[in-house]
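User: I'm writing a tutorial on reading structure tokens. Could you give me a worked example: one chain, its sequence, then its tokens, then a sentence or two explaining what the tokens reveal?
Assistant: Sure. Here is the example chain.
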Amino acid sequence: MNNIKVQNLVKELNLDVIAGEGGLNRKITSKMLSRPGLELAGLFDFYEEDRIQIIGSKEVTFFYWLNEEDQNKRIEMLFKNKVPAFIFSNNFDVPEVFKVNAEKYQIPILLSKKHTSTLMNDIISYLAEELAEMVNMHGVLVDVHGVGVLIRGRSGIGKSEAALELVKRGHKLISDDNVLIYEKEIGTLVGKAPKLLEKFMEIRGIGIINVVQMFGASVYRHKKRVTLIIDLELAEDSKDYDRIGVDEEKIKILNTDVPYIKIPIRPGRNMASLIEVAAINRRLRYMGYNSAQEFLDNLTEVIDNDSDDEI
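And here are its predicted structure tokens:
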């Protein structure tokens, strides 16, 4: 099961640690959040203890309606179940009883300046990415005219060199050599670079380069939806390649099918230009235009007209 530590969430969302700092290494395993309103009212039968607990204006208001005995009893029950963390929104003053139990059970209490709904949206979005099922694929991911293109092929075939030429033309690099791909939802795959490889490319004969330092911040993106896979392979005279492009092949990654094409490599072929054309063609198909189908329709019309003339 995927998990992240509470301290990663603190860093990502710029949260303040109010108490329970010793518990920042606690693991978060659930993408869902909980607001413990029923628990503050005394009902713990459905307490979702594996989730981060969000304390917003409703929970704070109800807490202060309770007498001191109920406050102490119910807050300790909240902490006894060893939840990952409590997060207060709206920069609320954290009641002392929360701080006492946070130190007692070493469960972090975090504070955000954001409104509750905004805070929850940010946390859910972050957890959905970090806790999603993920695969590691060998290749280069680039953003070409807004299309996320995963370039694959055997080692040394020229994936990075083609990507470098695309970057020089103003397109964006997401990851070179290894791409982490996760499924945001069925039908949507997102790729990003491992932390160590962010912004770097390996060019054989030259070594490691930092594309941001070399070409500027505009040529790099942190992540991108994967919408096209291109396999580069050495051309074989005996092998048939698609010359019209009507039929669309797909590859399944996790639970999502992704359009897929093969591009044969021969001396003199400009791989960057071919990838650009493939990306634009993919974008046109998303917009409802299929040039291959239009060609076949025109061809059929010409044949039909010739047949009519003969009659």
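What the tokens reveal: The two ends are 70 Å apart (CA to CA). The chain has two domains: 4-130, 134-284.
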